[in-house]
Amino acid sequence: MLLAGDIGGTKTLLGLFDPVAARPHPIAVRGFTTLDFDDLTTLISAFLEDDATKGAPIESACFGVAGPVIGDVAELTNVPWLVDAQRVATKFKLRHVSLLNDLQAMAYSVSVLRDAEVHVLQQGRTADGNRALIAAGTGLGEALLHHVDGRFRASPSEGGHADFAARTERDVVLLRDLIERYGRAQVEHVVSGPGLANVHRVAHRVPCVASINPEDPDAPRAISAAALDRRCDGCVEALEMFVEAYGADAGNLALRTVATGGVFIGGGIAPKILPALTDGRFMRAFRDKAPLEALLEAIPVKVILNAEAGLLGAAVYAAAAG
Ligand SMILES: [Zn+2]
């Protein structure tokens, strides 16, 4: 058996998997509020108290962690714990424990996703080559799947913190606002849940008809809903700017990694705004990279619909590493 985890700043998913060929099969999966626990070993102990998991013969484990992984230790970005692979291995008598960045873990799910678990934005032409993953949620994560000797190796990236590249006059207005607010404009300040709230601020020249306060933690969800229902012109414009910036940055990632094997859009936001992602704006911004439009037109682009892709990827990695 394998233990897999997707450890986020807010939520943690743990799963017990049977390591059947290619795609590990989930036996039990449970979600936890990360901050309800003092450390990962306490959280794993709670998971292993369930009837479905008690006494399971676990041999190896892999955890995707929302934060940088240095050696066998990972520091979470928004949680005051260290995740120590060696401690987990000792406490639960595991042969092998791997720690990956959360996007790196999700990247390992890409090769085993079923057709029903993705929505194709651009068919492209199936080709060998690197793949890339971009995922907007609370933040913006990116990862590269490097194609070497017929296999994919996932590398983490902190590309979400790269500089935001303005493409249009209204992006320039947004850029000025972000620099004033943060000192430096990062892509994540636009392409993430809080980013959508930042865009909302500059997209409203008149008060928001949907009465959304961008400081409200629930603002991103409310803005998307108001835009998709076309209740407020400002919210519609905010979501359009967000979708174009998301597509443009996915295109930048494709250029930087020559991702001819495909670009995958993960994270919690994409499935929720699918009608906006499929209206043409996202892919136009993705392809608008003269003189390399032909390269970008050939790249398959797919939205990941499986909300547990990060957990699945960690299980795929544990099966291969264990
Ligand atoms: Zn509005």
Biggest sheet record: 6 strands, mixed
Q: End-to-end span in angstroms? A: 10 Å
Q: Helix/strand/pairing class, anyone?
A: alpha/beta
CATH level 1 class label of the largest domain: Alpha Beta
| Uncertain stretches | none
Major sheet: arrangement of strands: 9-14-13-10-11-12
CATH topology of the largest domain: Hexokinase, domain 1
Helix proportion range: 25-40%
Tell me how many strands there are: 14
Give Rg in angstroms: 20 Å
Any guess at the CATH architecture of the largest domain?
3-Layer(aba) Sandwich
Number of helices: 12
Mean pLDDT over the full residue set: 95
Report the sheet-strand fraction: 15-25%
Shape: globular
Number of domains: 2
Heteromolecules bound: zinc ion
Sequence of secondary-structure elements? EEEHEEEEHEHEEEEHHHHEHHHHEH
Attribute tags:
Nucleotidyltransferase, domain 5; binds zinc ion; alpha/beta; globular; 322 residues; 36% helix; Hexokinase, domain 1; six-stranded mixed sheet; 2 domains; five-stranded mixed sheet; single chain
What does this structure look like?
Strands 9-14-13-10-11-12 form a 6-stranded mixed sheet. The chain is built from 12 helices and 14 strands. A hairpin with a 3-residue loop joins β10 and β11. By secondary structure, it is α/β, with parallel strands linked by helices. The chain has 2 domains: 121 residues, ATPase, nucleotide binding domain (Nucleotidyltransferase, domain 5, 2-Layer Sandwich), CATH 3.30.420.40; 192 residues, Hexokinase, domain 1 (3-Layer(aba) Sandwich), CATH 3.40.367.20. α5 packs across α6, α6 crosses α7 and α7 runs parallel beside α10. Bound molecules: zinc ion. Zinc ion binds next to α7.
